[in-house]
Specification:
alpha+beta, three-stranded antiparallel β-sheet, 1 helix
Amino acid sequence: MHRLIAATVLLSAAALAHAQGDVIPKTNGSCPSGYHDGPGAYCYQNSYGNPRDVVEKVGGQCPSGYSNGPGAYCYQNSYSRPQDVVVKVNGRCPSGYRDGPGAYCYR
């Protein structure tokens, strides 16, 4: 029970951080272009420039509106309509997100 509560809190915090557009989880210990290494397991958006939104690849695939980038990340296409995308956890989407194709949830 405690693990489920901890996982829910962690998922909610990660979804909120991602929705703010400035914090994403590290993948394989590294950060994508436009983000710098932060404390713990997170990457923080650089304060300079205008980096595109980034989401983790799942199964080597990127969600709709995102391009396959180097390493473990997908970058939002500059021509696409901005939207929040998060990776499903246990096949489910967090509150406020709709189920999308593949491994992603959209808001």
